[in-house]
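JOB MANIFEST
job_type = single_chain_structure
chain_count = 1
residues = 260
[input]
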Amino acid sequence: MKLQNRKAIVTGAAKGMGGAISMALAREGADLVMTARDLDALDEVAREVRGLGRAAHVIACDVIDEDQVRRMTAFALEKFAGRIDILVNVAGVTGPIETPVQDIEVGDFDYVIIANERGTFLPIKHVVPTMIAQRSGKIVNIGGTSGLRGYPMRTAYSASKWAVRGITRTVALELGKYNINVNAVCPGIVETPRMMKLCEGKAKVRGWTVEQVYEEYVQDMALKRVTLPEDVANAVLFMASDDSRQITGQHIAVDGGWDV
């Protein structure tokens, strides 16, 4: 297995992409510390991971709160006997949808920026000292194809995902000398409950049906199909494994050709 006995932290591990990523890492042999704010959903994924014969430790953590991130990292170090091989930053928020820039409330803008930028920065900040001491590690940030191109009516979200790429590239330059790879996986629209809420929100504003909004997304993609959580998980697995040993500071779009 590609990740036999590797020790991994996954933030936002409870639902959708986070759950699929956790399962993909576990199937390849990783033991996990899984964090999110929803402990019930985390416990459900943890049971599935344990069913594969891997360790799954659960801790509630709001990744924009430094004290909680500090405690989460200490928890992982205790469970993993002082080792952390992989960090996958999945936790994030979507923010206002179908909202022109002049109508975005400052508080809503700030919330998205803080959640998606600080929520990526803080776990890196607190995990990196361990990886530096090991002289090895893999950090995978979940960005988005809205951070590769403009995304009308989603100013806050797009700005935050551009920033995730900036964090990725800069930290990769800092940590390369310690044999630590830092990369980003950038999904497009992904078939999750969050996608359906997005479609419902757009449909309400536009006076469309949910099906019409969904089909608009499909037609924007070269492959004419919506990305599944497992598609994203497979890309994360590649970036977290030794198959990507010579790749750092890069991003891979998993979006069915939305950004082509």
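[summary]
The chain has eight helices and seven strands.
The longest helix spans residues 106-134.
exit_status = 0
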